[in-house]
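From the methods appendix. Each design record in this collection lists the tokenized structure first, followed by the designed amino acid sequence. Records were kept in a plain field format so they could be parsed without special tools. The example shown here is representative of the layout used throughout.

RECORD:
FOLD TOKENS (263 positions):
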């Protein structure tokens, strides 16, 4: 996306210059896994990347996007194929190492923006161990930026995120090339699972060759809803970043004014 400052497309001097001013790093993480017969396998990391790119573009010189993590903890979908996965302990080590190296590079603030439910436990475990890191690390899933109430109010059939259901299929429809509309399943697919239980977590169980890998009702998805969901996530992420950046900008301005007075 034009205007998005990317770590991987910047030189070392450019990054040192960026980190010398108030700056937030945003790291999209997700997965590459089956998303039913209709949504592309890279949806999770691409959706997180979309949210981050828009926020970084809006924040200008005060934000930088780290290279996306394109695989996640997806062992629960291996039985349906088309899935790449890493172990929980691998994810924990990877997040720790990337955060520590980003801190060593001079980044003062880092927000990990997640797009895959299977990453949540490992990521929170990793972040909780970084309490003594100079870089201040935060973790959030982009759907939590939207909020459960807003998600539920915008969806026509489902009442939570699910998997390749109305929520994700709506977002996928709002982004070109993410959905094979001729393969869009109807409602009541045999592998659709109950969703929306607040605070209740359980492992997904699949049998090879059985089910379509959909949790929810993609038949009610719409590109308009997806665009609204993405905009809400982007706006919330931008607000979060500005809450970090603006106090530091004010502090820099105050020091500059005091220095000017002395001279």
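DESIGN:
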């Amino acid at each position: 996306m034009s205007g998005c400052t990317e770590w991987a497309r910047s030189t070392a001097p450019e990054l040192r210059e960026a980190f010398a001013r108030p700056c937030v790093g945003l790291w999209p993480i997700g997965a590459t896994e089956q998303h039913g017969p209709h949504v592309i396998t890279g949806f999770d990391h691409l959706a997180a990347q979309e949210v981050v790119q828009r926020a970084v573009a809006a924040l200008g010189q005060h934000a930088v996007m780290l290279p996306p993590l394109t695989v996640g903890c997806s062992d629960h979908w291996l039985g349906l194929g088309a899935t790449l996965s890493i172990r929980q302990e691998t994810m924990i080590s990877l997040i720790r190492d990337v955060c520590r190296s980003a801190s060593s590079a001079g980044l003062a603030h880092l927000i990990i923006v997640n797009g895959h439910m299977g990453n949540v436990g490992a990521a929170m475990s990793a972040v909780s161990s970084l309490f003594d890191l100079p870089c201040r690390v935060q973790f959030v899933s982009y759907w939590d930026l939207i909020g459960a109430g807003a998600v539920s109010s915008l969806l026509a059939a489902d009442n939570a995120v699910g998997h390749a259901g109305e929520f994700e299929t709506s977002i996928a429809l709002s982004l070109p090339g993410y959905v094979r509309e001729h393969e869009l399943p109807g409602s009541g697919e045999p592998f659709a699972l109950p969703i929306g239980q607040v605070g209740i977590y359980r492992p997904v169980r699949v049998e090879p060759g059985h089910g379509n890998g959909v949790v929810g009702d993609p038949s009610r998805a719409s590109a308009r809803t997806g665009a609204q969901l993405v905009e809400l996530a982007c706006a919330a992420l931008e607000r979060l970043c500005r809450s970090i950046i603006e106090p530091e900008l004010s502090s820099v301005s105050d020091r500059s004014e005091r220095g000017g007075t002395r001279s």
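APPENDIX NOTE: The two ends are 43 Å apart (CA to CA).
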